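Hi R.,

Here's the chain you asked about this morning:
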Amino acid sequence: MVSKKGVAMVVAAALLLSIGGLCVKMIPWQPLSINSFRSFISVGILLVFARLTRRRLRLTGGVVLGGLAVCGATALYTVATKLTTAGNAVLLQFTAPIFVILCSWAVFRERPKRLDLAACVCVFGGVFCFFLDSLGSGRFLGDVIAVLAGICYAWVFLLNKIPGGDPLWSTILGQSMGAVIGLPWLVRETQFDGTTLCFGILLGVFQLGLAYALLTTGIRYIPPVTASLITGIEPVLNPILVALVLGETLTRLSLLGGGIVFVSVMLYNVLSVRGAPQSPQNAGQTLPQKEEK
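And here is the predicted structure, written out as tokens:
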């Protein structure tokens, strides 16, 4: 069965992740500078979390591959948010559930269930409605980068399935990579006023640090598709926050799309909890036993 504890953690992570678009837009830096700054802060928080939870470092091939996925997801999303609209970036990154299903099918030989496919169709329909008006205004390069971020983001939900994988240490490694990669741009920045630093700290502490601590813990207890669909909350709240602060307007079509996403995600989780138990290869609850080595 789908763990309510895991669902709650992923929901909380999605809420924290949703502040990303607003914070990135409010910082007048290059995108890799932003990602570097927030990653340095996040790594510190995650190292404390690893120590408190007694999660020892296991530097395996799976951890390194997971680190590359995390680095790609965080860095590419930041770049995409600067190159295109916040709505475009988060919408196209939210292709992740489809890539979770495709990668699980192609790599792990797991056929998607009808409920998984139906939920994906509904969620994408809602997100499409929500951002329909903004799709035409985005730059092509930013949109392409956002799709690549979605592919990397999909593998974040599959970290437990990679042989030798460890979601927490993959996240720490991946964000460390992002911090180092963006450092040459960060040291060239000249604007370090209170507002810039405040939003940078919000990104590091909450949008990356606490969010990924919750996410990497939550995905140990629920299937990857379930986790990726729950994060449908993020692409709805993200542009709402941008609209409230920066004055962007929301159309009726956007509000309709937001409602479809929320209802689809909630119904999917209710049906998953009430449905038959997951098979051992899909159930997240078998994974903590592997982590206890």
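One quick note: The CA atoms of residues 28 and 155 lie 30 Å apart.

Cheers,
M.
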